[in-house]
Amino acid sequence: MKKQWGLILAASLISGVSHGATPDEVRIAYSGGSQVIMLAKADGSLDKAFGTKVNWVQFASGADALNYFASNAIDIANFGSSPATAGLVRKLPIEIVGVSGVIASYERLIGKEGIKDLRDLEGKRVGYPPNSTSQYALDAAIKVHHLDRSKITLLPLRPAEMVAAWQRGDIDAGYVWAPFAQQLEAAGGHQVFATKELQKDGYLIYNNYAVRKAFAEQYPQIVSAFLRVHQQKVDEFRQHPDQAAATVAKEVGAPVTTAANTLSGLEYPSIQEQATAAWLGKGNDADASGIGQALSKTASFLAETGEVRKRDIPANWDAAINPRFLQQAAHAAP
């Protein structure tokens, strides 16, 4: 009996009785832009929910977030679906656990005078951040509207570089997210196209929450708590949008109008909705879920552009999408 108890105890430890443990800190990567999760950074609600310190790690692009994951420097990240897909295809040990916001007008094409619609891009120089959801949206817009890609000079530029190129007169248009989109508009630009317009053509482009698999396995209660706090902050923004915008603006160092524009430029499916087939699914058929289909479409785009190899695209997305934390968070939500 004593031997049997020892075996049971060992098995329990291996299977994760330690799941109730709390890490010394949780490292969360964010872009520095006006996202609802910044409300949690401002009031420390994640630290309280976790019962431990949160170390906020800022990055400039989704590609940077992937590098942080690869070097085991972060645990959770909020970044775009396109770089997340690239990371999954490259077999980075991460999984998608939630959607932080569907990109609507948050990312958009800004043009100078003379560019009234997408057709006017032919013969022009257009900047875009490489390996980003903006690049994916720009490419999709070119395809959907049957533009002659060979007649458009596409220039890969990081967001800050794009603003500088615009001011020098090196580009005629730029597809980028806030607050850089507002900077282009303030410098004489106007909105030509927004990512939301691609939804009717079957493109789901979003920001997601990705987590290191090892971290999620060891601390599932942390991941569920993170998603619950996300929903609380979405509700907070909806109930008091002006107050939320002011808080986020102060946190990220942006004008309140910029924060308000950015926060309202995203659509927020609830954690209950995200745990359905339309989003992350219920864990039994990842490929058929909305996010699974979006991953397949995005992966094909990345293969066409040479960002990933077609042969590396996984046969299915079962290991890439994990809705169980959403289910736990939704069950525990008031």
TrEMBL record:
Pfam families registered for this protein in UniProt: OpuAC
Domain called Solute-binding protein family 3/N-terminal: residue spans: 25-241
A GO term, aspect molecular function: transmembrane transporter activity
Subcellular location: Periplasm
Keywords attached to this entry: Signal
One annotated GO biological process: alkanesulfonate transmembrane transport
InterPro entries in alphabetical order: ABC_Gly_betaine_transp_sub-bd, Solute-binding_3/MltF_N
GO CC, one annotated term: periplasmic space
Chief place where the protein resides: periplasm
Signal peptide limits: 1-20
Family, similarity comment: Belongs to the bacterial solute-binding protein SsuA/TauA family.
Protein name: Taurine ABC transporter substrate-binding protein
Source organism: Pantoea latae
